[in-house]
Amino acid sequence: MNALAEAFRLIITLDADLFEILWLSIRVSLIALAIAAVISLPLGTWLAITRFPGRKFCILLLNALMGMPPVVVGLLVYLLLSRSGPLGWMGLLYTPTAMIIAQVVLITPIIAALSNQVIENLYQEYRDTFYSMGITGRRAIVAYLVDARYALTTCILAGFGRAIAEVGAVIIVGGNIDHLTRVMTTAIALETSKGNLTLALALGTVLLALSLLINSLVIGVREHAAKRQYA
Question: What CATH number is given to the structural domain containing 185?
Answer without folding.
Answer: 1.10.3720.10
